[in-house]
Amino acid sequence: MKATRLALATALLCTSAISSAASDYPGQANTSHHMAVNYHYLTDSELDDIDLSAATVSYAYQMRNTGGNFSFGPVIAIGSGAGKFEESGVKLNIDGMAQFGLRLTYYPCEYFHVFLKPTVTQIWLDGTQNGVDALGDDDTSTESGITMGLGFDVSDNYSIDLSAEKIGDYDVMTGSVSYRF
């Protein structure tokens, strides 16, 4: 929980600093806000048969240099499990997920983009084996990772992204639909 609070405070400070910096130099940067719905599919790289999923809602603030090909900004995502793993009396699901990242995006052409996003992610798990708590105190995991992805702007306000990320022992594939305003 401490890492989540730190990530949220850092995101708010970054957004405030970037926003004021962009307004100090009109004509030098385009800024925008992004709201997205994300679906995350997680597989455990050490255990082949465990796969989980989560759905999150994210907010991002983006600053892009005028006429340039790069943008930068903080991203915050919060959500919960969308599916669970069940086998031989073992039930495992994601109770919650929170993520903070700083996204650097490159636009090689007008409608296509690629991005890198270093992240800090906290995952709350719930696990039982034959009705007994199987995780004990190991139900929360905070990990850093890096996301690599690509996307396509389907219009001036909507984009679709697909990304891959490594969060601790989990390999994560994420699909996102974003609204830009």
Short overview:
By secondary structure, the protein is mainly beta.
What's the mean pLDDT score? 84
N- to C-terminal separation?
A: 30 Å
Order of helices and strands: HEEEEEEEEE
- How many β strands by DSSP? 9
Q: Major sheet: order of its strands? A: 1-2-3-4-5-7-8-9
Strand content: over 45%
Count of individual helical segments: 1
Percentage of helical residues?
A: 10-25%
Low-confidence stretches: 17-24
Oligomeric state as shown: single chain
Envelope shape: elongated
The largest pleated sheet is described as: 8 strands, antiparallel, barrel
Structural class: mainly beta
Rg over alpha carbons: 18 Å
Task: Give descriptors for this structure.
181 residues; mainly beta; elongated
Textual characterization of the structure:
This protein has 1 helix and 9 strands; from the N terminus they run αβββββββββ. The longest helix is centred in the N-terminal third of the chain and has 23 residues, at 2-24. Helices cover 13% and strands 67% of the residues. β4 (90-106) and β5 (112-129) form a beta hairpin. The model is unreliable at 17-24 (pLDDT under 50).
Helix/strand layout:
Blueprint: H1 2-24, E1 29-44, E2 51-65, E3 70-87, E4 90-106, E5 112-129, E6 132-133, E7 140-153, E8 158-167, E9 170-180
Antiparallel strand pairs: 1-2, 1-9, 2-3, 3-4, 4-5, 5-6, 5-7, 7-8, 8-9
